[in-house]
Amino acid sequence: MTTAAPTPAPTNPLGGEAYRLTLPNTATAPKIARDFLTSLLGVSRHMGLIDDARLCVTELVTNAHCHTPTPQIRVHVAVNRKCVTVAVTDDRGPLDIDKAFGTLGTALGAGPEQENGRGLALVEGLALAWGTGRGGGQYPDRTVVWFTLGRPEAAA
């Protein structure tokens, strides 16, 4: 009888450590994601990024919760000594891409009387970089929204 070799963990292309959290698509998902990220950034000595990271991850997880039929929301975090990158993935993509993400121009032009529509503009304003994409490969229906926070020289 042969034993199976353990599957190596995928390498983090950004270097550093990688963490994953899978959440049910519930109203408590944004808070759990915030607390998870706060803990990771605290132990990795990125205290100065915590407030911005909490706001950004809350926005992305809330969008997945409110605008997709996904049963699970995944939060992937890559932390190295210069920056943190967070990707939020859902299983089924937005019900309506324009409603979920809007256009950045609309988000940037949201009036003071509007209750919604500023979240991704906040992410853009706080992050060194951010973007959206599809899961690709095995998971083409997954939507991925990510952001990177850190010192400005980390973006180079």
Order of SSEs: EHHEEHHHEE
Please mark out the parts with pLDDT under 50 across 5 or more consecutive residues, or reply none: 5-9, 103-108
Largest sheet: 5 strands, antiparallel
Strand order of the largest sheet: 1-2-3-5-4
Structural class: alpha+beta
Shape: globular
- Percent of residues in beta strands: 15-25%
Q: How many separate helices?
A: 5
**What is the CA-CA span between the terminal residues?**
51 Å
From the alpha carbons, calculate the radius of gyration and give it in angstroms. 16 Å
| Portion in helices | 25-40%
Average of pLDDT:
80
Number of strands: 5
Give a quick summary of the entry.
This protein has helices spanning 29-43, 50-67, 97-101, 104-108, 119-126, and strands at 17-24, 72-79, 83-90, 129-134, 143-150. By secondary structure, it is an alpha+beta fold.
